[in-house]
Structures are given as structure tokens and as C-alpha cells.
Design brief:
- The protein is of the alpha+beta class.
- It is about 30% helix and about 20% strand.
- The strands form four sheets. Strands 3-6-7-8-9 form a five-stranded mixed β-sheet, sandwiched between helices.
- α6 crosses α7.
- The longest helix has 16 residues.
- The two termini are about 25 Å apart.
Length: about 230
Amino acid sequence: SNKAIHQILSDGMTFKREDRSQKDLLVELIDYSEDNKNIYKFVTQLPIEGTEKRIPDGVLYINGLPLVVFEFKSATQENTTIHDAYTQLTVRYRRDIPELFKYNVFCVISDGVNTKAGSLFAPYEFFYAWRRIDATTQETDDIGSMITMVKGLFNQDRLREVIRHFIYFPDSSKKEEKIVCRYPQYYAATKLYENIRKTQKPEGSGKGGTYFGATGSGKSFTMLFLT
């Protein structure tokens, strides 16, 4: 369900008319144009009924669709950690309010000091901080990671780009897999894309540039997002 709905989110859906003499309509759930005619709402402590009633700490709605779920823990309480926020989302919420996660793009967990984003289907170690507001700013960690995520990943233009171009479902996999880009992959692919377009022949040199990536940095996914 999550994969099918995400495809509609990113590509839109075709609405076929009963009168076949008229053209089909393309219905887009999110406006990806520069006009950005979308309604964004961040809702806190909304009770959601499933097999049990659960109350996520935060849900980001775009055009009425619950696309990002947030779970927060307090850094001052020794008995709770950011990993508890991960467990709350991926075990309890997924089990008790599964309807919510049909629409989920990714999740955010935080203890106020550490803030990370990742796919509902990803192991905890694949949740990552978004450490840069844009490609040119310094990396920030710890308590500043909440600010860089809000200003970086949740910049409305950037968030729409991530939803549309930077989430990958393998065509065939025996595991539940959904890959959400890390911030270096996003900035690298975006910069590469801009440079390739700028240097396209016949006006340009045709040399898009060279990309260097360390082992384990996710170069294959970066190239996939670029494509």
C-alpha cells in the first residue's frame, strides 16, 4: 500500500472519464510547480484510532495527507532514548494504526539533542540526521540537528523534491525495503543534475563533471537518484 500510494504521490494518477471522447485527466496530489499551491499543516498530539488508540507526537500533513510522522522523547529522562522513539513508531504504531502509514513518506525521531529521519521499514542504524541546511553550510550535529532538519529537509521546495525524486522502492526484493536519501546524496545528485543540464551539448561542453564518493557512502543510490 505504501509503495502504491507513493507512486501516486510522486507521479500523479490518471483519471479516466466515462465519456471516452474526452481526454483523461492527470490528478496530482501534490503541486510540484514553483507556485507550490499546497497546504502544509503540522498537527501535534492527534489521537488516531486503529486496533488501539495511539497519539503520535506530530504529523505533517500536505493537502490533508499524513506524510511524515514524528516521535519525540525527552533527553532529560534517563529511562527513555531516541531508540525508544524508533520502537514506538516501527513496532507499536505500525501494529496498532497501520492505516496512517499507508501514506507515510518517512519518519522523524528525536530526543531534543539527536534528530534523525528514515523509512518506516528501515533498521534503526539507517536513520540519519540531516546535518546541512543547504549544500554550502557547515555540518551541524547534536542539539543543532533539529534546526538543520527543519530548515534543510523541511524546506518546502526541498521536501517536495525528496518526495518526488529521492525515495526508492526496489522493484523486486524479498525484504520490505524503502530507501530514503541521506543529505549528502540529495545535495550531490542535485548539484550533478544542475551541472549536467548546464553543460549539455550543443551549447555546453558535454562534460557534466566528476563525482567522488567514499566506500559505503551510497554512490549507487546517488546515481539512481540522479537518473
